[in-house]
Structures are given as C-alpha cells and as structure tokens.
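Cont'd.
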Amino acid sequence: MKILVAVKRVPITGGKMVLTEDAQAIQTRHLGFTISPHEECGVEEAVRIVEAQGGEVVVLTLGPAEAEEQLRESMALGADRAIHLVSDEEWDAQATASALLEAIRVEQPFDLLVFGNESADAGNYQVGIRIAYALGLPVVTGLKGLTVLDGRARCEQEVTGGRDVYDVPLPAVVTVREGLNLPRYPSVPAKLRANRKPVDARPVERPPSKLEKLRLVVPEGQGKQAEILGRGAEAAPAVVEVMQRLGVA
Amino acid sequence: MLAVAGALFARRALFLTRLVRAGKPTERLDDIPGRVKNEATIVLGQRKLFQRLLPGLMHALIFWGFLVLFPTIVMALLAAVNRDWSLPWLGSQGWFMALVDVFILCVLAGIALAVWIRKVVRPRRFDGSHLGEADLILGMIALVVLTLLGWHAARIAAGLNEWPASASFLSNAVANVIPAPRVAERVLDWAHVLVILTFLVYLPYSKHLHIATAAVNVFFSRTRRPGRLEPLRFDLPDDELRLGVSTVGDLTWKEMVDSFSCTECGRCQDVCPAYATGKVLSPKLVIMGIRDQLFAEGQTLLAGGDLSPIVGNGVPEEMVWDCVTCGACVHECPVSIEHIDHIVDLRRDLVMMQSSFPQEAESMLRDVERVGNPWGKPQGDRASWTADLGVRVLEEGEEPPDVLYWVGCAAAYDERARKAAESTAKLLQRAGVDFAILGAREACTGDPARRMGNEYVFQAYAEQNVETLNEARVTKIVASCPHCLNTLANEYPDFGGRYEVMHHTQLLAELVHEGKLAPAAGEGEITYHDSCYLARHNDVRAEPRELVAAVGKPVEMTRSGKRTFCCGAGGAHMWMEERGTPISEERVREAADTGAETLAVACPFCTVMLDDGVRSTGKQLRVVDVSTLLVESLEE
Amino acid sequence: MSVLVLIEPNDELSLQAVTLGRILDSDVHGLSVEPAQAPVDVLHVAELGGTYAPAAWAAATVQLVERLAPSAVVAPGSDRGNDVLAHVAARLDLPMAANVTEVRGEEVTRQRWGGTLLEEARLHADLKLLSAAPFAFAASDDASRARVETFVPNFTPADTAVRVVESISASTGGVSLADAKVVVSGGRGVGSSEGFAILEELAALLEAAVGCSRVVTSAGWRPHTDQVGQTGTKVSPDLYIACGISGATQHIAGCKGAKKLLAINADPEATIFGHADYAVIGDLHEIVPAISAELRKARAT
C-alpha cells in the first residue's frame, strides 16, 4: 500500500483572534502550531493501515519553512517520507490543489490519498476533491470510519441520525474528520528518528489567486457583554427564569 | 569452615558487586565534604533513624553495639583456630572488655525494644515487609551476643582471659555459672563463630545486606539540591539511549545499591500521602519489588539475556502513577534510598518509550509541547492578570530589572492561583523593588512534563527558557511557585542557566526585615501549610513562617516543616485523576483540626488543591497565599 | 440572469441558502436530488436512479448550469452542500468560496476558523460558486410554491460510482447533539468523567443533549461524538449551557450557532464570557445541581 497524506501547519489560536497590523494574517508570535486536527487523524489512519498491510506513507505539505515541524511530527507518528513544497505566501484552495497535484503526479501511483475534510484555518473544503477529479479517482469525504481491505475502502460518513456508508475500489481519495481515530502519542525514539530523516524540500511559486484574499476581519460579537445572572448556587432561580422565557424549561 | 563460609559469602558478594558494576552510570562524586559529613551524621550518628525516637534508639543500640563488638568477632575467629590467640593489645584491655559488656547489654536492650515494637506495638509500616525474616535476624543477633557473652564468661571461668576479669563485670558474673569451663569455652567459641559465619552467609541473601550497603548508599546520595532530577541524554545513537528504566538492566548503580540497602522498615510507607489515602503505592514495596526482581534476574542480566519489564512484575503500574513526588519517603529513609529517582525513571520509560500513561494527562503533555503551558491557553494571555497593576513586561533587548518575577503558568491561567501573583506584584511595587515579568516569553519551566517522565519535552523547554533568560541577562529571579523555583534553581544549571533564585516569601521576608513593608500584627489564628517542593526539596521553611507570625497568630500542624504532608498536586497530579480519598482532603482535615480559620499557603498548586479540599469537606477554612495575607494587613 | 441554489429537503440551511440566492438575483432556481419544498421560482428535481451520490448531484448541477447559465450557484453550508459544491468547482475548474456571510458584487466575506474569523476576498470568476455560512442568513420563509420540473441527467459511470451502499442508524437513545434544542456542555472545569453526572441530570430535565469540549475528549472522559467544536459537532440549539469551558475559539466555532449561550465558570476572566448572553460565576459543581433542583421545584408547583 502506498498512501499519501496531505497536512497543513496551522496555529493553535486559543481564546482570541488577534490580527497583524496589515490585517493579512493572524498574529502568531506567541502561538504554538500543530498539524490541522482532521489531518492528524489522517496521518494516524494511514500509518495504521500500513502497519497492518505493509507499504509506505508519504506525507506532503505546502507551507513555510517552519512547516517542516509538522512533517517531522507526521514522521514521528509513523509516516515514512516527507515532501515539503516551500512557500511563505498564503495559497487559496484551488492553487494549493494544483501545487500538491504536481508533487503527487511525480510520486504516483498511490493506492490511497488522504486529505483533511477542511483545514482548521481556511476551511475551504475543496483540496481533496479537486485532486480527485484531476487524477480521475473516486472521492468520499468527511469520514469518521475507514476500513481498507482487498483493494477496496469502506467509508463511513456521519449524517443526521447515523452514518452513511460508501464502498469504493482503490485507488481512491478520501477526506477525513477528527474522531476517525485517536492519534498515538509518539515515543521519543520515534521522534528522534523522525528528526533525522531527510525531507524532500523544494520552493514553489504561487500563481495569481482566483479567490483573492483582500483582508481578514475579526467578527463582532467577541466582547459581548453577558448579563450576569448571579454568583454560585444562588443564581439558580434567575437561570430557570431565563430558561422559562426562552421556552426551554 | 571459615573457608567454606568465606567462599559462600564471597561468591554472593561478588555477584552483587558485578550487578552494581553493570548498573548504568550516574554522577555522584560532587561535594565530597558533604558526603563525608553525611556518613558521620547519618551512619555513625544514626541521625535519620532518630527521626523516630524509640525505633531509632532500638537500632542505635544494636548498631553501635556491633561497632564496638566488631573486634570481638575477630578475636573469636582467631581463638577458634588456636585457643590462645587473640588480638594483640586490645585483647588485654580491661576497659575494652568492660565496654564490650556494656554494649552487650545495650544490644540485648535494643533487641528487647525491637521485640516490643514488632510484637506489641505492631506498627502499620511493617505491612508488606518480611516479618519472619526480621524475627530470624533478631534471633541471630541475640544469639551472637549471647554466645559472645557465654564465651567470654567461659574464658574467664577457664582462666584463659587475657584481660582482667573484674573489668568485664558482666562476663565475670556469668562466669560463675559456667559448667566445665574448659570444654564450655571451646564449645561457646565455636558456637559463636558458627552463628557469625552462618549470619555472614545468610546476610547477602537477606535484607540484612543493608549492613554492607547502607554506608555506601548514604555516601552516594544527594547532599545538595534534593529536588533535582538527573538529566538524560538524547544525543546518542538509538542503541545507546537510556530513557528511563524498563528492566533491571536499565537501573543505575545507585538505584541498585538503593534496593540492596532497603531494610523494609516501612518508614517511607508510613509517610507516603498516596499510601495514607488508600492508593496502591507504597515506596517500600517499590524498592523491595525492584530488589527482588534484580535478585531474581541478576544472573540473566550479567549473562546478557532477555529481561522482563519491572512495571507489571516487581512493581504494579498503578504504583508508578500514584506518586506525587513529595519526597517524604526520601526524607524519612534511614539508609538514604532515593525512591523518587526509581519512580521517575520507571515513568520515563512508560512515557517516552511506550507512550503508556494516564490518558487525562495526555492533553497536558501536548499542551506543554505545542502551546507552551500545561493549561493549553494562549501564551499571549500570560500578562493579562497584570491589567490594572502596571507591572513592567520585559521586552527583548531591554535592560533587565534587578529582579525578574517568574510568575509561573498557574498564576497566569488559574483564577485561584492568580491572587498570589497580584498580591506579590503589589507588595513588590509598594516596597519599590525594580522588577519585571517576561509575559508571553515565559514558557512553562517543564516541571510537570519532567515529573511525569517526559524528559524530552522538559529539556526542550529548559533550553528555551535558559536562552530567553540568558539573552535578557537575568541574574536574580523571584518565583511564587515552588515547582518553578525548584526547576529554575536546581535543574536549569544543567542546561546553562545559573541564577540566584528565591521564593516570593523569602524576598518578602527580606523586605519586611528591611522595613520596606510594615505589616500590622493580627489576632487571627493561621496555620501554615508547607509546600513539599518548598520545605523539603528546597529547605525554605522559616521565611513564610516569619510572614505569618507578622500578620497573625501561627498554629502549627503536626506534620509540618520537613515532615509536611503533601497537598496532592505534585508529580503532575494536578492533571491526573485521583483514586481513593483525595490527598488534599486528608491535609485539610489536619489543618482544620488545629482550630485555625485561615490556612496559609505559599504555592499555587497547594492553593488550588487545598481549596478544592475545603470545598469538598465543607471545613471552615480560608485558603490564602501568604502574600495576600501580607497585602491585606498592609491595607488595613 | 438567474441563480441556482442546491436544495436538501427539510433543511434549514438550504432555506438560508435560498435567502442568499435571492440577494444575488430575483430569479432563483433550485436543484435537489430528492423531492423537496423550497421557496424558489423553479425547483428542478434530478433523478439519481439510486441512492445518494455526491458526484451525481454535481454532474446534474453542471448540466443545469449549462442550460440556465446562472450567475451563481449557491449551496447550503452543510456537509453535503460544501461537498457537492466542491465537486462542481473541481469539474468546472472554477474558484469556490465556502461559508459566505456577505456578497458585494465581486467581493465576498467568508468564514475562516469555523466562523471566528472572517476573510474578505475577491472572487475572480464569471460563475460564482458560494456556500452560505450556516445562520449567516435568515431562512427564507417565502411560502410561494415553486414550479417543479424533474429531469434525468446524463450520468457517466464515474458520476454514480460513489454512492451510499448502507445507512446505519445511530443507536444512542438520547437526544442527538446536532438536533437538540438545548445542549448542556462541559469542559475542563468538570474535572472527571464522573463529574458529568450533574450535567447529565440537568440535560435529562431539559431533554437536552450533553456535549463537551476537546479537552474532555482528549482526557478520555467523554467520547468524540459528544465533542462540540470546530472539528467536532457544530450545534445550533436555542440554548447552549457551557459549564467549566474556557472558551477557546475552536470550541466557540462549534457553538456559535446557538441562539443563546449561558456560561457557568469559576473564572470571571474566562474568555467564554465574551461570547455569552448570560453568565453565572462560580463553581459549576454547586451551580448545576442547584439549577436542576430549582427546575424540579418550579415544575412541582
């Protein structure tokens, strides 16, 4: 099995959104970073499949030089190789898909390509699907369950009232959601080995954007003034009164 | 017979020595003067044993007795070979033989005391110890001194004594009842030698091994910085990495000697807060478990064979996680066993090699690693508590203040712990101290990660913080949190960070002395809870008490100072679930029993844990940091 | 010009998408793959010839687009809506703006970070592909009946290859998080899995679902299915009660669809209070049972 997993470096934003002066990005000076949560589950799933059935997991990212950290995290989880398309700019989903596609074509054939359903920051919901069309592969999205066996993938998607199941032949593209699995906590030797592995890094040029970001805006509603109903257990009657007014009590 | 006994003893001793030499390395040769002092006070002076008066007396009598009686063993062996042989000069000294008689009585008194303790008092600390073995040893000791007495008496009765008989009053008196003296003298000499040789052979297979190893163990135990854990190295090839202890083959030689020195006295078990509140952990059983597994697998270890994991065999897994690293066990141990090293080393393997640890602690580890603090809250919010206070935040490139106030994660992110930081800042401002905080550039010291066994994450933060502090040219630090204090003062030097670190109560006490802060005396009764990391691991006990005395009427709990009882948050337990009775409730009950209305603390973890304990037990106690009491007294 | 709106039956988000459609153009067509009611001018219903297949719906959309030449295709900001619209974008190699809150000519405002941050962007395309951010638009309640036209699209085998083969019903007896009118949610402040008992008690009284924050699922106290957040379930109850939750943006992203938010937290500085309509400051372990007791009392009278 040869599996590709695409990952993205995203900041861990905490409680507030603070923008840079030019409103082009989030102020990340004191923020920690992580692999976008859906994708972390994707890496874990790919590693589990390869542990069970043999093969190789290749992890791919388009991001700044610091994104190497997330590639190494992925390798600590068990990915075998990492490809880094280096760019400091922000790419829209369509352009991202094209860039990833080029790197993927060189490495083809993959049995399975795993993407996050949407990235935690930009939330475009498109990259995996665009790549599937470009490669002419079936795609199932939003997976909470995945079983790969005998050249087929049984895919479970959460919907209202339960789950929808799809069954597709490999090779296929899937996009996954957090909750698919619980990513392992890597051992230190795994981290040390991951730190020593080479990363195939190459710079890429961003084409003009068709969904062109003009600026970021923090929405109003942060900094609401909550009505204090009380302190401690004494607030209970006031709470119930509100509930009655809202029609839920 | 001597040859046979000697050979048996030597074979076992050689085996044990080879094991210790196979132990992993650790640096224990610093501060030789301190180590010698420990030998004198702890071994010769029996200082730690006397932390419990009666058992201490019991042991001291027997121990000192055997120091004095040792030459008589040599004399007995010589006389066994040739009836007329003895030690030159000493053998004829009346005063020496008088001393011998005195100490024979001492040893017998000690044994009587031991029997009384074990059979009448039956303290709970012996739960889990091998009592039968202990009885056997006591019996053999008794036999040794009785045969010695008998032999000396017989020697006098047979007229063979090289020393003036009247000097050895006891032996002389007993001599009157010895039948057939010449025969009896031989019989008793041989009996005495037989008992000694049997004891010699038995010794290295039993817990009595401690008589050989304890003195060694005391010498190599920490003399300074008890709160410092020893760092691991990660810059080694995979097959040379030692990331904690999985099998007996991973133990350091000190850990091996620790396990050989255990006398199963159970004092550690007695003071362990986990054990006291119904958890599985007993520090005694951890060391015994490691020792037994080491004995059982020793040959395999030396032959290079496959070893089984300690956790799950010699030591149950729950014991490893129950520990709060409070150090009460280490403080209590008469032979200077360092239990925390064993437990943390076992944790290190579980966490770093096997990724096996309580799940609820996983987000804490991930948060420390990715975000920079165990609460997972944004680093950018670290200075929010200073909002209206006008506290200076030291930016990059600025001149450092006289004192850097290391706030700690708890005060920055927990609403109950925050008060102490606010109070401390106000007091420092009032006293005109030139201080600043690092704000967002202050990352977790790494203490919770390190105590959990994740040395890797800890070192990453140690290096980062040392770089920040060194670049800022900080030389003096004051910390409110004893865990931060411990790491900054004792552990960061290993990573190139050398600073003068004080606790906020130390700085505040200094300011009160200098008259820069003038608290008003108060009438309220206040009981002060010593934080383990402050009082035990770092010897800060007097200054918080000075501050408490300045603002109220201090009332001490029974378990205070170096013998303080933990609040339950140490060893990363602030982030783990607790089984059984909460340790904090046990401590709150003790505080309430003093009758005081105020429970003063000097640690953010103690603040939160004891406040939780007060809420769940419903006691009428106000948990408050010493700095807040000081502020309140100034504002009156 | 016209606008084509993708419609899911009995779906509030689809009605909101229609509202966006109406803002863009007065001539609103709808396309669904199942019989549905929608306040559009013409509702096209495409026959899939089998179970649900997202690529098929996308193929139908593309064929209808060729016929109608609309200025925009609007999808609901639901999982299926974003999914199908992305298929359409891929087929047509056009840009797509997901979770749009406003449109001003060429410019759109769309959501990032689950809605806790907004992006203003220029869409360079003649055909705008937009999904409507959930609850950014009021549901269109225009009761006028649409003229319904059914059609059978020309599908290639690839269009229908990926389709639902099985539907599994959720076995949980309780109220589903996504549908609940009231959600009682717990965070780190609850302290343990046993601590959730008082939340479950209150939830039972209110016929509410119990949710939790990501910290809670990481600690293993509750399953991931209970997680409310950007990467968990997004809820839109009438009342969301956040107990011991600090208010990280990724959690807020999951519950900002709530009409009203009541935050219960011991820390008066907690970020959640900045997003709440009502606040109670104090220990949730005292407050939550007190609320349950008060509810019982109020019902007894």
